[in-house]
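Researcher: Re-running this chain for the archive, since the previous output was lost when a drive failed. Same request as before.
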Amino acid sequence: MTSKLIVNSLRHTGASADAITMDASGNVTFPGNATCSGTATGFGIEGITMAETWRLTSTITNDGSENVITANLAKQAAPSSYGKVGTETMTESSGVFTFPSTGIYYIVALQMQYALGASTVGAGNGIYINSSTDSGSSFSRSAFSAQAVSSSVDYSSGSCHYIMDVTNVSTHKVRFSYSGTSGSKLAGNSGDNQTHFLFMKLGAT
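Model: Regenerated structure tokens:
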């Protein structure tokens, strides 16, 4: 046996205004603050449900052209204070990243590069975010940042950002590439974030 309560508003006995109103289409309005003791779902905007950092674990020597980072990429696991949001995680194969679920993702690529000797002074070092919507068959440059090294021992850093609408995890991919004057270095380390990448899921697509 089922029961049904048919009303168009709810009000506390001591209140002077309705707390909840409903129209004939089923739309519900909360005029004041709403507090949920459990986990609220199905409200469209979910909030940040996933955030994690990946890093380049080994330094790369630039050859003067743009190259894709295809190896030595790992999820950050140290130091012990490192935190992430959610249980979902990015996966990576040969430098191509796959998203764990559909959604709107905020992606940041941050480079650290440095010169080794006078021949690399003035190096125009760059980091790129490249996105694909055809399962990785082709990639388009989505964001780019460049920074010049001004002395023989100088470090440079730069970051670029991209918000990607991932409507299909099978077809939507992302990868990173770099460039720099031949002989300069793209810095990577397994123990701290030098060149590194942030993935954050902002909400539903």
